Amino acid sequence: MRLAFPLVVSALLFSLGVYGVLARRNAVLVLMAVELMLAAVGLNLVAFDAYWADALHGGQVLTLFVITIAAAEIGLGLAIVLLVFRERGTADLDRLDALDERAEVAAAPEAAP
Amino acid sequence: MSPLVPLLVLVPVATAAAGLVVGRRRVLARILAVTGPAVALLVAVAAAWEVGVDGPRVDVWSVVPTGWVPIAVATRADGLGLTVAVMVATVALAVQLYSTEYLREDPRYPSYAALVSLFTAAMLLVVVADDLVVLLVGWEVMGLCSYALIGHHWELAEARAAAVKAFVVTRLGDVGLLFGIFVLGDLAGSFQVSRIAVEVPELAGATLTVGLLLVLLGVVGKSAQVPLHVWLPDAMVGPTPVSALIHAATMVAAGVFLVARLYDAFLASAGALAVLAVLASVTMLGAALAALAQDDLKRVLAWSTSSQLAYMLGGLAVGGYTAGLFHLLAHAAFKALLFLAAGAVIHAVGTNLMAGMGGLSRRMPLTASTAGIGLLALAGVPPLAGFVSKESILGAAEEAALHGGPLPAWAAWVVLVAGLATVLVTAAYVTRAWTLTFVGPDRTAPGSRPHDPPRAMAVPLVALAVPTVVLGVLALVPDVIASVLDRAVGADGAAGPPAAAVADPGVGLTPATTVLSLLLVAVGAGLVLAERSRIRGGDPAASLGGLRRVLAGGFGVDAAYDAVVVRPVRAAARLVVAGDSQVVHAYVTGAGRAARGLGGLVHRAQTGRVQGYLAGVLGVVVLLVVAGVVLA
């Protein structure tokens, strides 16, 4: 089997994930995009594992680990998104700009009584 | 090595220090204040006695190597120094005694008394110093004390301004003095007056004249002569006893004393003496005219001090060493008396202005009679001290003008003419002050009850009236004054003839000038009295018309200085401030602003949108990778 095929698929998956993380507005979809990137990494690992015919199958084992941890991570991520939604009434990333210092500086004089 | 001379300086210093330590315990402060000059007076008399028995001497206590001309901590016990020391201690004692009563209620009395003691100590140091640098120390301490004492009522803006003015103007002169001392020290290879006196005849020349002119700058500053006289009338805002001290015994006398101290050097420089003669002549007449038009009793006395000091310096300039110094002593007695009497009047009436006085001789007989003696002495009426001393100066001037002296004859003529004219004006302003203050209608504020001062203030008045009379009589005994004021001390401490022996006319009456000046006194007083009866008891100065304002303002010298010096300096100061705030400071604030502006640019990127940040990170990573690939 040619190594190039899974690598190209993996690259496409990863790019799709990057695009999703950077461009999607909904936090849940961003999380899904992150999963896509993880999947791309896993595919890479498995592909190289098979290509090098590793006796210990380290790539496949590591991929299983990543999938497990990603499951836990996505659970945590969804919980945070849920809390943010409850707190702010939105999961729109464009509106979650509490890190914006400009807004604070601009709003501060008005906020002050 | 006689311990008396250092003791003379250390006693008042010690009482000054103790006076500052006792703080607010007023009785103790009073006792200390009077003890200091009293002990100093005893020490001065004892030291003078010692000089009389053992002859004059110079003691070098320590030599400070400087790498150039060494500074010798040297004292000098001679007739000149110790006579002036006795005078200083006497006036200081009178002033301190008087102040215990005059400033009885003043909250700052303890520090005041301590400063007066320090002032006395500084003057005594000037008087006994043989080394010019040591003398300068006393000279500068005196300047500092005068600043503090003139500014005694520092809550008044006027007092603060006068104190600063006195300090700045005299300091201007002191710069000259400092450099003059350097020049003399460099010429003679020593700062010691006794060495300079020996070396000077071989050194006479342009450099010596320049050095002496620089010294003269200090002298005119301290002794309130043209062109640095402007601080003296303003200094009148200080307490009256301070005026008495400054004007009679210390501060202003120091300038005259310095000329006498360096007299051997001055005799070798006709140019310096001529300059001194001209400055003294201008001051003599100008200050007397200004005194004629003043409304404030103390300012009359202040201008008259300037004028009388000019007599002394004029006398010294024409070679009348004994005459000039005798006038210093006589003036110390009668001017201290006059200031203290003026203080008593002001204390009783509550105003400085003569317009608020009048007819006080009936209510204050003691003050009026002692002040009368002082005024007569000031006018030069025989046989009082001022008469003999002034005649001696005029006699010396006549001698120098007709038969030649240490200075060009024309300069002696200037002194003689100015001196005689001043006799007339002096008699006029003395008569005016007397008639406005002590006789005529009573113009005191209703309800005030002027009365003679209490004993602590009356005793100094009477005590100072005694030398005012006695000195005049004493001076008529031949050679007494001249022998007392002898300055001759050889370099090795042994008595010897002064280096430059110029015939000193001494103290005495010269027929021509005496008759002329007595006539002028009568004319001056008569003119004022005639004018007074013509305008029915008013102020005779009113008849001067528009001239009066010019005279009262001291010929606008202050305004001229304001225009020529003060305003340009202020403008320059503003320029410097502007340069600092708008050029130098602008760089500093500019650096800050630039940093903030750049920060603001970066600030824009901080949108709070994490995706934007990530996009940035990605972009940079891609850029780095591409760059790495391409460049590798």
- Distance N terminus to C terminus of chain A? 71 Å
SSE sequence of chain A, one letter per element: HHHH
Sequence stretches where pLDDT stays below 50 over 5 or more residues of chain B = 489-501
For this entry, what is the oligomeric state of its chains? heterodimer
Structural class of chain A: mainly alpha
Work out the helicity level of chain A.
over 70%
Radius of gyration of chain A: 20 Å
Give me the secondary-structure topology.
The complex is a heterodimer of chains A (113) and B (632).
Chain A: H1 4-23, H2 27-52, H3 58-88, H4 101-111
Helix pairs in contact in A: 1-2, 2-3
Chain B: H1 4-22, H2 26-54, E1 57-64, E2 71-77, H3 79-102, H4 109-128, H5 132-150, H6 157-188, H7 193-203, H8 206-222, H9 231-234, H10 240-249, H11 251-261, H12 263-267, H13 270-292, H14 297-317, H15 321-349, H16 360-363, H17 365-379, H18 385-403, H19 409-437, H20 455-475, H21 480-484, H22 511-534, H23 546-552, H24 557-604, H25 610-631
Antiparallel strand pairs in B: 1-2
Tell me what you see in this structure.
The complex is a heterodimer of chains A (113) and B (632). With 113 residues, chain A is mainly α. Chain A contains 4 helices and no strands. In chain A, helix 1 (4-23) packs antiparallel against helix 2 (27-52). In chain B, strands 1-2 form a two-stranded antiparallel ribbon. In chain B, a hairpin with a 6-residue loop joins strand 1 and strand 2 (71-77). The longest helix of chain B is centred in the last third of the chain and has 48 residues, at 557-604. Chain B is globular. Mean pLDDT of chain B is 85; it is low at 489-501. The chains are: A mainly alpha (113), B mainly alpha (632).
